[in-house]
Amino acid sequence: MVFDFRPVLNGERRDPLAIMTRLVLRFASVPYGWGVQWRNRQFESGQRETVRCGVPVISVGNLTTGGTGKTPIVCFLAKQLRDRGVRVAIVSRGFGRGEADENDEAMELHARLPDVPHVQDPDRVEAARIAVEELEAEVILMDDGFQHRRLHRDKNIVVIDATCPFGYGHLLPRGLLREPIGNVTRADLVLISRCDNVDSEALANIESQVHRVHPEVPIVRSNHVAKTLLQYPSDQQSIDSLAEENVAALCAIGNPDAFMHTIRDCGAVIVQSKALPDHDRYSPETMAEVREWIQTMGDSIDQVVCTHKDLVKICSDRIGGKPLGAIAIDLELVGDESPLEILINDTLSQSQLD
After folding, report:
1. 69 labelled binding-site residue
2. Residue 24 belongs to domain spanning
3. Structure pTM?
4. 296 in a labelled binding site
5. 64 labelled as ligand-binding?
6. Which family does it belong to (predicted)?
7. Partner of 296 at 20 to 30 A CA spacing, among 74, 161, 277, 343?
8. Is 67 annotated as ligand-binding?
9. Helix or strand (DSSP H, E) at 125
10. Annotated binding-site residue? 163
């Protein structure tokens, strides 16, 4: 059983154990914060080297840990660059891949962007070198790169999830912030994801907090839109096929609540849900547990629904005797898109690729 730590971190749980846990975690966040600021000062003062890879680099990252919805954004940017005839490659750390060649994010990106190479290496400088020298990339998209300071980037895009924008207001481990909110000053553009999951007042508050520390940064709003229902290996159904279906929801992502919201927006009824740890590999033991869980629901469900990131690991069109489908998510920009267009044009003009 996976422990849900969010009610502890966000203050929803008020029992003595939760209060004591928050207190201990708050003390633990102090040395973490010192370490983050010390490391950043080293890069800003030149004590640590920043390496250029010879082509423009756009970093897509965030301030918090967990799923802010970067994958649809990386896909969107990669398609924009490919449509301009630019050879683009994605580089990332490859968190959670273990002994495998690629993690679940890379497998999903490969399925969605088969013509865009993705190099995973904890040393992103080396990954960028391979992308440029061996794959002849003209632009690098660095996935989850905001905290990775060693590879020089020409543009920093910071993604903020509207449903949990500032990690409960505390640094790790007390909250979900990887670094203080004030460090958003390094961003060239802030992109707010899942805007349709919150009201206009909440969005205005997020933008106000960002502009309080970085008044000049452009902000672009976006939604995650369910486009199709995928079935392994390559079948697609209309997303409307989920309407009024009774489903079991299965995921191993950083923000399961947002996924549940998406399923309900598609008109499906969630009978039961199971949220596994982010990047879970779906081992044989886990698969056996999931099958048993699905079988206990019997005829009360019509199908099982997961994310694309889960489907590329499960690799089946059925599980526990029920059809398995994955919701494919695309990025939809809301309102003024020009700041993102300007950022792309500025990046390409630096190497005369536009």
Report:
1. yes
2. 6-45
3. 0.92
4. no
5. yes
6. Belongs to the LpxK family.
7. 277
8. yes
9. helix 124-133
10. no
